[in-house]
Amino acid sequence: AEAEARASDLAKAAAKAEEEAVEAFAKLVSERRRAADAEQAAAAQLSHALRRVAHAEAAQVSLERRLQEEGEARERVELEERQARAREAELRLQTGPARSRVRSKEKFERQLELT
User: Fold this and answer.
1) How far, rounded to the nearest angstrom, does the alpha carbon of residue 96 sit from its chain's CA centroid?
2) Biggest distance spanned by C-alpha atoms of the chain
3) Closest C-alpha among 76, 54, 57 to residue 65
4) CA distance 113 to 100
5) In whole angstroms, what is the distance from residue 35 CA to residue 23 CA?
6) How far apart are CA 90 and CA 64, in angstroms?
7) What's the pLDDT band for 71 if we cut at 50, 70, 90?
8) Alpha-carbon separation of residue 55 from 45, 49, 51, 60, 74 (angstroms)
9) CA torsion angle for 89, 92, 93, 96 (degrees, to 10)?
10) Which helix (H) or strand (E) element contains residue 115?
11) Alpha carbon 68 to its chain's center
């Protein structure tokens, strides 16, 4: 009788241990599923962040290119303006003495007429 009671206790303990093992396994499977879902969500977030970084880098490159083009255009305009001012100054220098010579010639001719 004592052996039967002991065997019954052992059977109950074995059943309880098996039940706990099944629960632990189910919990492990559930945790693994949650971990896999979390990993998948993290991978999606990382992928999204990487796309945003790539887009931001492309926008930055585009902006830098546009700024460089605008700077080059500004430099071309400034150079053209300096060249135009230099041509105007050169024309003034070339035409200035000619006017002066014409006036001097006219003045000389008037003086000749007076004498």
Assistant:
1) 55
2) 168
3) 57
4) 20
5) 18
6) 38
7) very high
8) 15, 10, 6, 9, 28
9) -160
10) none
11) 15
Give the sign of the dihedral formed by CA 32, CA 33, CA 39, CA 42: negative
Residue 67: both structure tokens together: 């700024």
Give the position of tokens 């002066």: 100
Quote the DSSP letter at residue 1.
Answer: -
Token pair recorded at residue 76: 């071309």
CA distance 90 to 33: 84
pLDDT in tens, 12-39: 999 999 999 999 999 999 999 999 999 9
Instruction: Indicate the helix (H) or strand (E) that contains 109.
Output: helix 2-114
Give, in order, the Cα–Cα distances in Å from 71 to each of 8, 47, 67: 92, 36, 6
Distance, CA of 112 to CA of 106 (rounded, Å): 10
Tokens of 110: 């008037």
Question: Cα separations (Å) of 19 from 5, 32, 38?
Answer: 21, 20, 28
